[in-house]
Structures are given as structure tokens and as C-alpha cells.
Design brief:
The chain has 14 helices and 19 strands. The protein is α+β, with helices and mostly antiparallel strands and 474 residues long. The chain is 38% helix and 21% strand.
Length: 474
């Protein structure tokens, strides 16, 4: 009796699945009636027979839902790494992602060349503080190798309650064997937009990702920076022109919501195409256009990118680059040029399906190729730059008695030697972490971006056209 009930349940589930498939095939046939899907879907009968045989004969009792979810995962594993099935629990977590808060390590991952790879650690998170880097290969999570995991499974294993540890093993260039990292999970609160003023008249805005409020938060940040610049100009008796330049930083930004990438780009473009998305059927083309209202068109811009700028970041960079609205500075971007649609299924599970590829306004596809910056600037280690500056400053200091050749040694009292040794121990301690001000000061790519904005203003003044002579009137 129990088996018959399970078989009936299986029949109901697959009948619903078949009904959905045939309804979908009917709708597709309205677009293209050249293919008859009947023969393809006859093979679903084989799947149903296998399921039935497993239920009746497998050595242990299994849940029908687990078998069906496993079959779906197997089906999707033959597609691209960004197409995934999400169980109800994972689908709920994914919704939390875009709202900007969840529990975990704080890394964005992908599958690259069949290997689970870090796109970028999120600033200020446990993963960032532990020293994980872009392009790190995650070979093992706890005691389980990752070669058979899809993205969703890997994410679920690294997430968990705040304060609980998780151990991952990393391979990176220069390592002979995987390096072990035990990282304590925390609540990951992603502040999508961070801003600050540089040298009183140049704005700096860092986009960590693209979540639900990114475009509106960016607009607020722009208005504040512009007001701050005008206040400074007013105090220093300058003409109130507002921002003289803007750095938009999307380095280590793994992407996010497509509509937010469009909204961010629209803030700086007053007309033309922002991005085109084209699915399997070329006639299903979606084009997003810029709007004149609310455009910040007169502020010179630099967009900073690197190898961890992906997806939505590349949409923004590509749109501003193609329209000659900003100079893109840094290194080649990640190269994710596909668009995913998330579909909620009847049991609250979800399907994340790659449905289209996106193209920049000029028709370029970023997929696999990445975005080439207008000016290539490699990043330098800010700690090394700080050390070099300290050396230069040190050379300018005056001579002391201790620096003179053949100087007398100072007399030591009891206990002084011990204190001296303690001081030596303190000197061997590792350098403290850079402050936020130092991070900006010794960020080589950022400083180069500021220099380009300043030189733009200088050249504008040097080569400004003289006013046209007025026509004489009789």
C-alpha cells in the first residue's frame, strides 16, 4: 500500500512536470513551429521508469523529492556554471543576497575551467580579513572536495550561523599544496555604495556590488559630494561649480542585479543604448536606453576596473566607455557576459537559468573576453608604497649622535638592557593594517585616476578655444 501511494505521488509529480513541458512546448511552437518536441519528451518515460525502479528495488528507502531534485541537478550540470537549481532553503537565501545581508564568509565565487574559483572577497568581511584573493581556487570545503559541487552547493556549505568556523583549502599561484584557511562566519552586511571627497573637489565612489538600492544610493552620494564641493568652493572664494571630477570604483565588484547596472549607467548618460540582451531567439532582444532627466553629464569621470570586476560592473564600464563618457582605468575585467533569470517554482524552490547574453552599446560581447581598459594601470601593493614613502621621509631627517661614526655608547643601568630587548621585540611585530585614509593615499590605481582627472582640467584650460569675435554692426 505504501509503495502504491509513493508511485501515485511520483506519477502526480511527473504528470505535472510533463504538463508544464508540453504547455511550454506549445507556447514555443507559436514562435517556431519547425520542430516537433514529441520524440524528445518521450524519453521522459525512461526517467520515470528509472525512478520507479529505484523506489521499488534500491537497497535503502529514498525520498522521492531527493531523487527528483537530484535528476534536475544532473540535467542542469550539462549547462553553463551559472545555471543552477535552488532548493527552497537555498532560494530563500538567494533572496537575502540581493537585500544586502546574510551569514557567511563574504566571497563571490564562480566555476572557472571546472574549478571553484574566487571572483573576489568582499571588503571588510571574514574572507577579506583572512587574506583570500581573487582567482584563489577552492579545492576543498571542510573534508569534501569541490570538483563535484555546483555553485549553489558550495555557497550553502560556506554559509552558516555567525560565530561558527568553516575550513577551506585554497590553491593559488606559488603554492605547492593547498593552503588551509579556518574562517569564522559573520553576518555579511554589504554596503553597496561608499563615498568620500578627495582633495576637496574630486569625488570618490566605491560600488561593492549591485543590490536593490544601489542606483538610488549612488544618486544620494553624488548629490552629497557635489554639495560638499560647492561648500568648499564658496569658502575659498571660488566659483561654485561643484565636483571637478569623479572616480567610480568597481574593482572587485562581482556584479548583481541587471536593472541596477542600468540605473547606475543612466545617471551618467543622457541618451543612447546602455545594454542589449539577446536570448536564443534573436528576435527576443531587449534594449535598455538612457534618459536625459537627472543625468550627471558635465562631471569628468574615471572608472576603475580589475580582473574581479564582473557582470553588472562590466555593463557599467562598457556603457560609459562606448559612449566616451568616462575613461576606464585599471586591468582587464573578469568576462562574464551572460544574464540569468530566476524563476520561482511551485514548491518554493527556484531555477536560476542563463537566458541571454548582454552586449555593450557598440555591440561588443564581454563574455570570456572581458573589458579592456582605455589605460592599463597595474596595481601596486599599498604597504610597499607606504614603506617607500617612509624611507624617503627618513632620508630628510637630521643626523643624530647615534648616526655618527665612532660615537660613544650610552651607559646602561640595571633593567635598561631588558627594556631595550623588549623594544626590539616590539619592532619585529608585523606592521599594523592600513587605515582607510592610508588605503586611499597608497592606492596606486586610484591616485593615477585622480591624476588623469586633474590633467584633463589642465589641458582643457590650455587648449580652450578663444571666444569668437563679435560681428560688427553698422
Amino acid at each position: 500500500m505504501r509503495k502504491s501511494r509513493k508511485l501515485f505521488l511520483t506519477f502526480i509529480i511527473f504528470s505535472s512536470l510533463l504538463a508544464g513541458i508540453f504547455l511550454g512546448s506549445f507556447l514555443v511552437s507559436q514562435v517556431s513551429a519547425t520542430k516537433s518536441p514529441t520524440s524528445q519528451y518521450e524519453k521522459i518515460g525512461i526517467l520515470l521508469k528509472v525512478l520507479n525502479y529505484i523506489e521499488n528495488n534500491y537497497v535503502e528507502e529514498v525520498k522521492v523529492q531527493d531523487l527528483i531534485y537530484g535528476a534536475i541537478n544532473g540535467m542542469l550540470s550539462s549547462l553553463d556554471p551559472h545555471t543552477n537549481f535552488l532548493t527552497p532553503e537555498l532560494f530563500k537565501e538567494m533572496k537575502v543576497d540581493t537585500s544586502g545581508q546574510f551569514g557567511g564568509l563574504g566571497i563571490e565565487i564562480t566555476i572557472k575551467d571546472g574549478i571553484l574559483t574566487v571572483i573576489s572577497p568582499i571588503e571588510g568581511t571574514p574572507a577579506f580579513k583572512a587574506g583570500l584573493k581573487s582567482n584563489d581556487k577552492i579545492v576543498k570545503i571542510e573534508n569534501e572536495f569541490t570538483d563535484k559541487m555546483n555553485l549553489i552547493e558550495a555557497v550553502s556549505k560556506m554559509r552558516g550561523k555567525k560565530g561558527t568556523p568553516v575550513t577551506i583549502y585554497i590553491m593559488r599561484e606559488g603554492l605547492k599544496e593547498p593552503k588551509k584557511f579556518t574562517i569564522v562566519r559573520d553576518i555579511i552586511k554589504i554596503q553597496s555604495v561608499k563615498s568620500s571627497m578627495l582633495e576637496n573637489e574630486y569625488g570618490y565612489i566605491r560600488l561593492a556590488n549591485f543590490q536593490e538600492q544601489t542606483a538610488s544610493d549612488l544618486k544620494k552620494a553624488l548629490e552629497k559630494l557635489d554639495n560638499d564641493a560647492q561648500k568648499y568652493q564658496s569658502k575659498s572664494n571660488q566659483m561654485k561649480v561643484g565636483l571637478k571630477g569623479l572616480i567610480l570604483d568597481v574593482r572587485n565588484n562581482p556584479g548583481g542585479l541587471l536593472d541596477q547596472a542600468v540605473g547606475v549607467s543612466d545617471l551618467f548618460l543622457e541618451k543612447g543604448i546602455i545594454v542589449s540582451t539577446i536570448g536564443r531567439h534573436k528576435e527576443n532582444k531587449d534594449i535598455e536606453y538612457a534618459h536625459k532627466s537627472g543625468t550627471w553629464k558635465n562631471v569628468p569621470m574615471v572608472v576603475l576596473v580589475n580582473g574581479s570586476s564582473a557582470s553588472a560592473s562590466e555593463i557599467v564600464g562598457g556603457a560609459l566607455q562606448d559612449h566616451k563618457r568616462a575613461v576606464v582605468v585599471g586591468t582587464k575585467t573578469f568576462g562574464k557576459g551572460s544574464v540569468q533569470q530566476v524563476i520561482e517554482l511551485d514548491d518554493k524552490s527556484g531555477l536560476k537559468l542563463t537566458v541571454a547574453k548582454y552586449y555593450t552599446p557598440s555591440g561588443r560581447s564581454i563574455q570570456e573576453k572581458g573589458l579592456d581598459p582605455d589605460i592599463v594601470v597595474e596595481q601596486l601593493d599599498p604597504k610597499i608604497l607606504k614603506e617607500e614613502e617612509q624611507k624617503r621621509v627618513g632620508k630628510k631627517q637630521g643626523w643624530r649622535e647615534a648616526d655618527l661614526p665612532r660615537h660613544f655608547k650610552g651607559e646602561q643601568k640595571e633593567g635598561q638592557k631588558e627594556e631595550e630587548n623588549n623594544n626590539k621585540d616590539e619592532e619585529t611585530k608585523p606592521e599594523p593594517q592600513l587605515t582607510q585614509e592610508e588605503i586611499i593615499k597608497y592606492d596606486y590605481q586610484l591616485q593615477q585616476g585622480i591624476s588623469y582627472l586633474k590633467s584633463y582640467a589642465i589641458f582643457n584650460q590650455m587648449y580652450a578655444l578663444p571666444p569668437k569675435p563679435q560681428a560688427a554692426t553698422n
